[in-house]
C-alpha cells in the first residue's frame, strides 16, 4: 500500500505531529490500514482517522499506532501535548503535562482495559489530578468523576453520589434507565437513596430501616456500574479519597473484593498530617490487596521541570532559570507552576506562601524552636548542635522532632535532621521577626563554633545575619584562608573583601594587619584575573604608610600586579 492522504492543518504543533506520523508510516514501508489494525487492536477505520483526519486523535490510539510504526512514543507524546492545547490559552491547568509518560500510559490502559482499582498517590502538589485528567481526555471511555471534600461533618458516599448523578445526566437519563432495566428491581430502590431522581414522586427509604440496606446498596452500585459498562466503556475517577467518608472507603473495599468490571481510579494525597489515622490504615491495607494496583508519583526531574516551564510560558526557558526553579521547588509541579510566575530569586508568590503556611501549620514551643533553627541553618543539623542552639534537653528535642516529623516537615539521616523542602525553609524564615531571626542566627553560630568539622565561612555568615560583626571578622579571616587553601579563589576573594568592609567599620582581627589583608586579597585577585578588584586593592595597599619591611612586600606585590 502507498502513502495515505495527509490532512491539511495549519502550521504549528499539530502540523508537526501529522508530518512526524506520516514520516513514520513511510519509513515502515507504508503498511496497510488492515495490517496496522491487526497490530494495534483497533479498527482499520480508527487507524484511517488517526492518519488522515484533520482532527487531533485521542492519545491512546496515537500511542498504539506509534508503537506499531516503531516510532518514539515519548517524542510523539510531547508533540500530542503541544498540539492538544490552544495556542492562545494562558491557562497552565490545561491537560498538558511534562514527563509522566509511563504513568499516563498505565492510567490510559487501566481506563480502557482495566477492571479493578488503581490508586494514584503522591503528596500535595504532585499533579495527581492533572495526570488522571490528561489520561481521561486521551481515551474514548466515559469517565465519571466523584470528589471527596474536607467537610466539618461526613456526607455518606459523597463521591459516588456525584459520579452516579453525572451518569444519570448522560443522554438525558436514557443510558441509566436502560442499565437499570437490566438490573434486579431492588437496585433502583437502593440507588434512589443516593440519587433521588431515580425515584421521581417517591421518598427513598433509609438504609437504617433495612437490616440488609447497606449490603444491598453496595451490591446495587456494582450492579448498575456493570450494566452501564455493558453498553459503552465506563470508568470511575474518585478524587481526594484521603478525605473520604467511612462509607465510601467501605464501598471501595467491597468493590475491590466484588469487582464490577468497571475500572476505578482513586487519587490519594500521601504524607498529609491532617489525614485521619484510620484512613491511612485503609490505604496501607488496600494498596496490597488483590486486584489493586498503585502509581506513586515522584517529583519531576530537571528535564521534566524544564519541559513544564516551557508548557507554562509557551517558550523554551533558560537552563539556569530551570535549574534555579527545580532546586527551589524540588520538582513538585504545583510549586514549579507558582514559581514560574515570578522572576527567579524574587519573593515567593502570595498563593504559594499561603499554601506553605497551611502546610506547615501552627508551631509553638519546642517544635517551633527546632523548626526556627533548622530554617536559619538551611541544612541538616546534628542532635548535639540542635540542643546547644535551642537550649532543649534530649527528651524535649526528641518530642519536638517527632512533632515535626508527624507533620511531614522533617527529613533526617543518620547524621542529623533538617527541614524536608527548601520552600519550607523560606516559609519558616518569613515567619521570623527581625529580632527573632538575629537571635536564632546568634544561637546557631555560637553552637556551631564548638561543633567539629564546621566551615568557618558558615559560622561567619550566621554572625553576620545576627548583626555581630565583632564575632564575624575572626571567622571571616579564617574562611578566607581556608578557601585559599582549597584553591577556591572566588570564595577567598569575596571573604577578604568582606574582611576589608569590617575593617573599615572598626572591626579587626588582632592576628593580622591591614597590609597583610590587602596583599593576600591582591594575590587572589591576580590569580583570578580580576583586574577591577586588583586595581582597587593595589591602590589602597600602595597608599599605606608602613615600616620599611612591610612596605617592601606591599610594593613588590603591587609591582607584580601592575
Overall description:
The protein is of the alpha/beta class and 562 residues long. Among the domains are: 13-84, 434 Repressor (Amino-terminal Domain); 102-296, 3-Layer(aba) Sandwich (Rossmann fold), CATH 3.40.50.300; 347-454, Arc Repressor Mutant, subunit A (Orthogonal Bundle), CATH 1.10.10. It is 58% helix and 7% strand. It has 28 helices and seven strands. The strands form two sheets. A five-stranded parallel beta sheet has the order 2-3-4-1-5, with helices on both faces. Strands 6-7 form a two-stranded antiparallel sheet. α6 packs across α7 (128-137) and α15 packs across α16 (333-339). It is elongated, with a radius of gyration of 32 Å. The relative contact order is 0.06. Mean pLDDT is 89; it is low at 88-95.
Short description:
This protein is of the alpha/beta class and 562 residues long. It has 28 helices and seven strands.
Main attributes?
Arc Repressor Mutant, subunit A; 28 helices; single chain; 7 strands; Rossmann fold; 562 residues; five-stranded parallel sheet; 434 Repressor (Amino-terminal Domain); alpha/beta
CATH class of the domain at 102-296 reads Alpha Beta
CATH architecture of the domain at 102-296: 3-Layer(aba) Sandwich
Q: Largest sheet at a glance?
A: 5 strands, parallel
User: How much strand content do the residues show?
Assistant: 5-15%
The strand order across the widest sheet is 2-3-4-1-5
How far is it from the N-terminal to the C-terminal residue, by CA?
A: 79 Å
For the secondary structure, the number of strands is: 7
CATH topology value of the domain at 102-296:
Rossmann fold
Number of alpha- plus pi-helical segments: 28
Radius of gyration equals 32 Å
- Shape verdict: elongated
Spans of at least 5 consecutive residues whose pLDDT stays below 50 are 88-95
Amino acid at each position: 500500500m502507498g502513502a495515505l492522504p495527509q490532512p491539511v492543518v495549519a502550521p504549528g504543533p499539530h502540523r508537526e505531529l501529522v508530518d512526524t506520523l506520516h514520516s513514520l508510516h513511510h519509513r515502515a514501508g507504508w503498511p496497510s490500514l488492515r495490517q496496522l489494525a491487526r497490530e494495534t487492536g483497533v479498527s482499520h477505520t480508527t487507524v484511517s482517522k488517526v492518519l488522515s483526519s484533520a482532527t487531533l486523535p485521542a492519545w491512546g490510539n496515537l500511542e498504539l499506532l506509534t508503537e506499531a510504526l516503531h516510532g518514539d512514543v515519548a517524542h510523539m507524546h510531547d508533540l500530542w501535548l503541544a498540539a492538544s492545547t490552544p495556542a492562545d490559552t494562558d491557562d497552565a491547568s490545561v491537560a498538558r503535562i511534562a514527563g509522566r509518560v509511563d504513568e499516563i500510559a498505565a492510567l490510559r490502559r487501566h481506563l480502557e482495559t482495566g477492571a479493578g482499582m488503581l490508586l494514584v498517590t503522591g503528596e500535595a502538589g504532585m499533579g495527581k489530578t492533572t495526570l488522571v485528567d490528561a489520561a481521561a481526555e486521551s481515551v474514548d471511555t466515559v469517565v465519571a468523576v466523584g470528589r471527596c471534600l474536607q467537610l466539618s461533618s461526613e456526607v455518606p458516599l459523597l463521591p459516588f453520589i456525584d459520579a452516579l448523578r453525572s451518569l444519570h445526566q448522560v443522554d438525558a437519563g436514557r443510558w441509566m434507565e436502560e442499565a437499570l432495566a437490566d438490573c434486579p428491581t431492588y437496585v433502583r430502590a437502593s440507588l434512589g437513596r443516593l440519587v433521588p431522581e431515580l425515584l421521581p414522586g417517591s421518598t427513598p427509604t433509609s438504609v437504617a430501616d433495612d437490616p440488609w440496606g447497606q449490603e444491598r446498596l453496595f451490591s446495587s452500585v456494582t450492579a448498575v456500574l456493570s450494566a452501564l459498562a455493558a453498553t459503552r466503556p465506563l470508568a470511575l475517577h474518585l478524587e481526594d479519597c484521603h478525605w473520604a467518608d467511612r462509607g465510601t472507603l467501605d464501598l471501595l473495599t467491597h468493590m475491590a473484593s466484588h469487582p464490577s468490571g468497571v475500572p476505578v481510579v482513586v487519587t490519594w494525597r500521601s504524607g498529609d498530617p491532617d489525614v485521619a489515622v484510620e484512613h491511612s490504615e485503609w490505604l496501607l491495607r488496600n494498596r496490597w490487596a488483590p486486584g489493586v494496583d498503585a502509581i506513586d508519583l515522584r517529583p519531576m526531574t530537571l528535564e521534566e521541570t524544564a519541559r513544564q516551564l516551557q508548557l507554562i510560558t509557551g517558550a523554551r526557558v533558560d537552563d539556569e532559570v530551570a535549574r534555579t526553579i527545580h532546586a527551589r521547588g524540588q520538582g513538585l509541579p504545583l510549586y514549579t507552576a507558582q514559581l514560574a510566575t515570578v522572576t527567579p530569586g524574587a519573593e515567593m508568590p502570595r498563593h504559594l506562601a499561603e499554601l506553605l503556611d497551611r502546610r506547615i501549620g501552627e508551631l509553638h514551643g519546642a517544635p517551633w524552636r527546632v523548626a526556627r533553627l533548622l530554617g536559619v541553618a538551611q541544612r541538616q543539623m546534628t542532635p548535639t548542635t540542635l540542643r546547644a542552639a535551642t537550649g532543649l534537653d534530649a527528651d524535649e528535642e526528641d518530642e519536638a522532632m517527632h512533632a515535626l516529623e508527624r507533620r511531614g516537615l522533617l527529613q533526617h539521616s543518620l547524621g542529623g535532621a533538617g527541614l524536608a523542602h527548601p520552600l519550607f525553609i523560606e516559609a519558616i524564615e518569613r515567619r521570623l521577626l527581625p529580632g527573632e531571626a538575629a537571635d536564632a542566627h546568634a544561637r546557631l553560630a555560637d553552637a556551631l563554633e564548638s561543633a567539629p568539622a564546621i566551615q568557618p565561612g558558615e559560622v561567619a555568615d550566621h554572625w553576620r545575619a545576627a548583626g555581630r560583626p565583632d564575632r564575624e571578622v575572626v571567622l571571616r579571616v579564617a574562611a578566607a584562608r581556608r578557601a585559599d587553601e582549597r584553591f577556591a579563589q572566588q570564595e577567598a576573594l569575596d571573604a577578604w573583601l568582606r574582611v576589608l568592609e569590617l575593617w573599615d567599620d572598626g572591626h579587626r582581627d588582632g592576628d593580622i594587619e591591614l597590609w597583610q589583608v590587602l596583599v593576600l586579597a591582591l594575590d587572589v585577585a591576580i590569580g583570578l584575573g580580576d583586574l577591577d578588584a586588583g586595581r582597587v586593592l593595589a591602590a589602597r595597599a600602595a597608599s599605606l604608610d608602613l615600616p620599611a619591611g612591610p612596605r617592601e612586600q606591599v610594593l613588590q606585590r603591587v609591582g607584580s600586579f601592575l
